[in-house]
Amino acid sequence: MPKDNTTSLDNSEFTLTEVVFPYQVNHLGSLFGGHALQWMDQAAWICATRFSRKTVVTIASDRVEFKKPVREGTIVQLKSRVLKVGNTSVTVGVEMHAEHPLSGERFLATRGQFIMVAVDADGRPTAIRS
Predict the structure, then answer these.
(1) Quick check: is 129 in a domain?
(2) What's the burial of 92, exposed, middle or buried (CB within 10 Å: 0-12/13-18/19+)?
(3) Which tens digits make up the pLDDT trace of 26-76?
(4) 53 C-beta neighbours (distance < 10 Å), count
(5) How many domains does the chain have?
(6) How far apart are CA 46 and CA 39, in angstroms?
(7) CATH number assigned to the domain comprising residue 102
(8) How far apart are the C-alpha atoms of 45 and 50, rounded to whole Å?
(9) If you average pLDDT over residues 83-94, what whole number do you get?
């Protein structure tokens, strides 16, 4: 972490890996969209927190596209990176790639953007860079 509490590009990316279990799929055997969104939001939160070293909250998600279904037993990797930095907000892009564990076949399943806002102890927006 930078000693002067400024943001660092070294912390502008983060990867989270998960496995799709039976309780996370619908009647067709594919991942519920809500679980995908939860993982994407977590990856965005960790990325924004590590980047800003501030408490952040999600204020919006944008352009979330479910490109291909993700089946039970699939490994998913969520790659997040800072796309834009505002005064109090950070926009994080998240891509969820799926991998079949036996064949190694990989594909982009879902992608979207999450806007995170830094907040102070009272929950009010605060500057990303201080």
Answers:
(1) no
(2) buried
(3) 999 999 999 999 999 999 999 999 999 999 999 999 999 999 999 999 999
(4) 17
(5) 1
(6) 11
(7) 3.10.129.10
(8) 8
(9) 97
